[in-house]
Specification:
140 residues, alpha+beta, Thiol Ester Dehydrase, Chain A, five-stranded antiparallel β-sheet, 3 helices, 5 strands, elongated, Tol-pal system-associated acyl-CoA thioesterase, HotDog_dom_sf, hydrolase, Tol-Pal_acyl-CoA_thioesterase
Length: 140
């Protein structure tokens, strides 16, 4: 399934394959790796909007940091499963973004993990909160 183009009110899907390195001794995805998958989903969402995080740091002087996460593990994903990371913007503040993210197994559309993630925009030098760049705020 190809990634979807994000929009202000839509979700954005990003495919992820479970590799052996993503699993634990029981052969299921190690719980912390769901956070890595979600990070990829948010990064690709930004990229699809036309924003690269390294360029935002250099050209706009901003970086992003996760300030809060809530996860629910619902059903395990296993080695070689194809997953979809579905990211939806649930709130846009002056200096923050909140996302609802689901990780679904493609084969049966089971939700493996559901998360709420809050991200803050920071000044790259001072690491203090800073308003979202105008162009980015307008795009979302």
């Amino acid at each position: 399934m190809p990634p979807q183009t994000p929009g202000a009110q839509s979700s954005f899907d990003w495919p992820v394959r479970v590799y052996y390195e993503d699993t634990d001794a029981a052969g299921v995805v190690f719980y912390a790796n769901y956070l890595r998958f979600m990070e990829r989903g948010r990064t690709e969402w930004l990229r699809a909007l036309g924003f690269e995080q390294d360029r935002l740091r250099v050209e706009q002087g901003v970086i992003f940091a996760v300030t809060a996460v809530e996860l629910k593990y619902l059903t395990p994903a296993r080695f070689n499963d194809l997953l979809t990371v579905r990211s939806s913007l649930s709130h846009k503040g002056g200096a923050s973004l909140a996302f609802e993210q689901d990780i679904l197994r493609v084969a049966d559309q089971a939700v493996c993990c559901r998360g709420a993630v809050k991200v803050v925009c920071l000044d790259a030098l001072t690491l203090r909160p800073r308003r979202l760049p105008d162009r980015l705020a307008a795009a979302i």
